[in-house]
Amino acid sequence: ERDRSGIVAHHFCRKALPGAKSVIKIFSPFRIETPFPWMLKSESFGMGKKKAEQFAHELEGCSYETILVIGSSGALRPHLKPGDTFFVSEIVSEAETIKIPQRFSGPSARLYTSARIIADPNEKIQISERLNADIVDMEMGFLWTAASESLRKKFVFVRGVLDASGHELDFKKASTWLRLPGQIHRYRSGMRSFLRDYIFRR
Q1: What is the pTM for the complete model shown?
Q2: pLDDT tens, 2-16?
Q3: Which parts of 94-152 fold into alpha helices (H)?
Q4: pLDDT digit string, tens, across residues 101-116
Q5: DSSP secondary structure, the chain, as one string
Q6: Which end of the chain has a smaller Cβ tally under 10 Å, C or N?
Q7: From CA 35, how far away is CA 183, in angstroms rounded?
Q8: What are the b/e assignments for 44-77, b being 16+ CB within 10 Å?
Q9: Which residues pair with 157 in a beta bridge?
Q10: CB 55 within 8 A of CB 28
């Protein structure tokens, strides 16, 4: 390691797939979203629009060659399940569709970024049908919009499904909390396999 504040995964990067840079800095909204012990020093930047925009401004002028932003998402389509993981290829909204340049090959998804938690299964279906979106989060779109063109070229966005489209996210209900440990386990397992298969080679 060269940097106490983050990952310089030299033992992985030497074996990185074609297109990988020698230094990959890893970030996520929450530390719990990092699935590897060797990622424990990755940095978290917080949840939601304000934190994502602030994070983009803090990154401006950084020397990182590749900025890998990982995290969890909600499924908007019934066939997606916890643990399914994707590169973000497009960020969709009511106003526009933003195509994200792909630096790696692998399964990809269309992401809708919301300023609030989408808890109602019916609303998830409506968003999917209206915008042709696959998954939903609360950061990536705001992070991309707030970043400069030079910073965007360094981004690789990866999102894993944490909750299925049919699950209501009501944290006042015991059922939500009872599902959570299993969902986190499947999310982490899926993210770990995805990163090893498509970005890092063991």
Answers
A1: 0.83
A2: 333 333 333 233 233
A3: 121-131, 140-146, 149-152
A4: 999 999 999 999 999 9
A5: ---TTS---HHHHTTPPTT--S-EEEEESSGGG--SGGGTTSEE--SSHHHHHHHHHHHTT---SEEEEEEEEEE-STT--TT-EEEEEEEE-SS-EEEPPPSS-S-EEEEEE-SS----HHHHHHHHHHH--SEEESSHHHHHHHS-HHHHTTEEEEEEEEE-TT----TTSHHHHHHHHHHHHHHHHHHHHHHHHHT---
A6: C
A7: 13
A8: bbeeebebbbebbeebeeeebebbbbbbbbbbbb
A9: 69
A10: no
pLDDT class of 154 with cuts at 50, 70, 90: very high
**Looking up tokens 């978290």, which residue turns up?**
44
Query: Is residue 34 very low, low, confident or very high in pLDDT (cuts 50, 70, 90)?
Result: confident
Cβ neighbours for 5, distance < 8 A, ≥ 6 positions apart: 41, 43
Place of tokens 């074609």: 18
What single DSSP character describes residue 1?
-
Considering only residues 7 and 127, tell me which one the structure prediction assigns the higher pLDDT: 127
Q: From CA 42, how far away is CA 68, in angstroms rounded?
A: 10
The DSSP secondary-structure symbol of 17 reads P
Q: For residue 25, list its beta bridge partners.
A: 67
